[in-house]
Design goal:
This protein is an alpha+beta fold and about 600 residues long. It has seven helices and 35 strands. The strands form eight sheets. Strands 1, 2, 3, 4, 5 and 6 form a six-stranded mixed β-sheet that branches. Strands 7, 8, 33, 34 and 35 form a five-stranded antiparallel β-sheet that branches. Strands 13, 14, 15, 16 and 17 form a five-stranded antiparallel β-sheet that branches.
Length: about 600
């Protein structure tokens, strides 16, 4: 090779190495930072495990930052803690963090002496030699500890993760302190007034805030956010572990005893639970159902006998074989089976009760024909009247809702690509979201387009993914329905067409402002795959709750090898003034 050729090869190699370095740097930059929040060491005569858990959960909820900071799940931290046991110092925290591939480790201790509580916390960067970030909190009781832990989380977000809103808050606080100093000096007052006790200091700080709810927190539940920061409470309930994947759930008084039951759909079986206070009891299990893949469960009294039926959408070998159950003397029993319709129950947008929609399918497509309003006649579930819907609508991806209080329902649907769209009329699209909603790993297999080509007989079937359901409700009683929907986060980020692995979800409430769907509130980010949800008085306490089925997957396994929990957030509906609606002007 000539000198010129060697030189050219060297230059190309250098360019390639530089490009790879930039690519790797960009990839590393894009990766979220991982945080391990260890259980704080408890120093107390009494059992304060609830406090240890509360501090850990509080810090985890405040440090998590979408796409930027991931808090490692406790189930993954626990095995490593056996290898590197407490008590912890800076060196042991770094060692544990390295084993977890964490960037930051938070550890500390909680001491309870009588009514006095103190918390000593440390934040260690696993790599580098920066000194730990530390805080010491002491207060007369637990209620006074919480705001100071919250302040510490803000410091971590600002100083460690450089979270913009936290940095701005600290800079604002610093400016206020600097501006107040000259005024205090001119007035002859001391620059710092030391309170007699930590409790007095906290009371002084909170005196002007009594009775006020932070503007970023929804009055429905302190865990529901109007922005990405801060929650103040743990007002939720979680069921014991349920082995297997909860595919779908529904809530209703299926035995007509005045109390609501929860119907949970698992592969090959259906369970009925009742939540009474904190007791979550299994009252019936149905295992003798038809073969097939159970997709969704819905509850509605379509036959009008006063006892709601349970509709199970089921498919086997590309054919719909849905069935209906009803509560009898011995529990659940089949009322009808082999029904060639998918079902979806929704509240009537212009009246009382529920509407049951139905749709069929064909060999070559997941859905075929129009969506019908179903009826019960002569012992059969039959299609009644078809409904006019936008293109690509199917029985599982739309709701009809009175979004503007006009008495004229609009259609909200999950369009292809999992974008939310709003239609006034079937051909009148009013809004399309930029974000993806209602993502699901549930699908129906259909022949690929090339299967019709004799030269390509071996092509794999295509998968048509089904969205999670859309919920309509009017929790604030302003006469305008809100849309409740999930955003599940896919670890594969959509790069594989026929495979999705969801690991985190958030429930959103959206309202219509005349031009677009706007966020009303959201839950915290929930670890796991949110398969289904509803709003109902599941605890029979006279108040609604947001009820979710949350699936956890085993690492290295498929979803079917996972386990599930039911989670319920208690709600406190409050009547509000009517939302501002932007009216459409003709000609625009």
């Amino acid at each position: 090779m000539s000198a010129t050729g060697i030189s050219r090869t060297v230059r190309r190699t250098a360019v390639l190495v530089a490009a790879l370095s930039l690519l790797l740097s960009a990839s590393a930059w894009a990766a979220p930072q991982r945080v391990a929040v260890l259980p704080f060491t408890a120093n107390a005569k009494e059992d304060i495990s609830y406090l240890v858990k509360g501090v850990r959960d509080m810090l985890a909820s405040r440090l998590a930052w979408q796409d930027k900071v991931v808090v490692i799940e406790p189930d993954l931290v626990a095995p490593v803690m056996k290898e590197v046991p407490p008590p912890y110092n800076e060196a042991k925290a770094r060692k544990l963090g390295s084993k977890l591939s964490a960037d930051v480790v938070v550890y500390g201790s909680i001491t309870a002496l009588g009514s006095t509580v103190s918390v000593d916390a440390q934040v260690v960067r696993v790599k580098g030699k920066q000194p730990p970030l530390s805080t010491f909190v002491q207060a007369a009781d637990l209620n006074q500890v919480i705001p100071q832990i919250n302040d510490f989380a803000k410091r971590i977000n600002a100083e460690i993760f450089r979270r913009p809103e936290a940095v701005a808050a600290m800079q604002k606080q610093k400016r206020q302190e600097e501006n107040s100093a000259p005024q205090a000096a001119a007035s002859g007052k001391p620059l710092v007034e030391a309170p007699k006790t930590p409790a007095a200091e906290w009371q002084q700080k909170r005196a002007v805030e009594v009775g006020k709810l932070p503007p970023n927190i929804s009055p429905l539940n302190p865990l529901f956010l109007r922005s990405l920061s801060g929650v103040d409470s743990d007002r939720y309930w979680r069921s014991p572990r349920i082995d297997g994947v909860v595919e779908s759930l529904a809530v209703g008084d299926i035995d007509n005893d005045g109390l609501n039951e929860m119907v949970v759909l698992l592969p090959k079986r259906i369970r009925v639970y009742r939540l009474d206070g904190q007791r979550f009891g299994l009252i019936n299990e149905f295992r003798k159902g038809p073969d097939g893949e159970y997709l969704f469960v819905d509850i509605a009294d379509l036959d009008g006998n006063g006892r709601p039926e349970i509709f199970v959408s089921n498919i086997i070998n590309g054919e719909i074989v849905s069935f209906v159950l009803e509560w009898g003397k011995g529990g659940l029993a089949i009322k009808a089976k082999g029904i060639p319709w998918f079902f979806r129950a929704q509240p009537n947008p212009t009246g009382k009760g529920m509407i049951v929609w139905g749709q069929g399918k064909s060999i070559s497509s997941a859905f075929a024909g129009p969506v019908y309003r179903m009826k019960y006649e002569n012992g059969q579930y039959l299609p009644d009247k078809p409904i006019q819907l936008p293109q690509y609508a199917n029985v599982f991806n739309f709701v009809r809702a009175d979004l503007n209080g006009s008495g004229h329902p609009m259609t909200v649907m999950v369009a292809p690509g999992f974008r939310l769209k709003v239609f006034g009329k079937p051909d009148d699209e009013l809004f399309a979201s930029g974000e993806m909603y209602a993502g699901s790993s549930k699908f129906i297999e259909v022949p690929s387009h090339s299967n019709n080509d004799p030269s390509n007989p071996g092509d794999e079937p295509a998968r048509e993914f089904l969205p999670t359901r859309l919920i309509i409700n009017d929790l604030d009683k302003d006469g305008r329905a809100e849309i409740v929907v999930v955003r599940n986060k896919d670890s594969l980020q959509g790069i594989m067409e026929n495979m999705q692995f969801f690991y985190q979800g958030t429930i959103y409430s959206l309202y219509w402002n005349g031009m677009s769907l706007m966020e009303n509130w959201r839950t915290p980010r929930i670890s796991g795959y949110l398969t289904d949800y509803t709003i109902a008085d599941v605890g029979n306490v006279g108040r609604p709750a947001l009820v979710l089925s949350v699936v956890q997957t085993k690492y290295g396994g498929m979803v079917e090898k996972g386990f599930s929990h039911i989670v319920a957030f208690t709600l406190k509906p409050q009547a509000k003034k009517k939302k501002h609606i932007i009216k459409r002007t003709k000609g625009l």
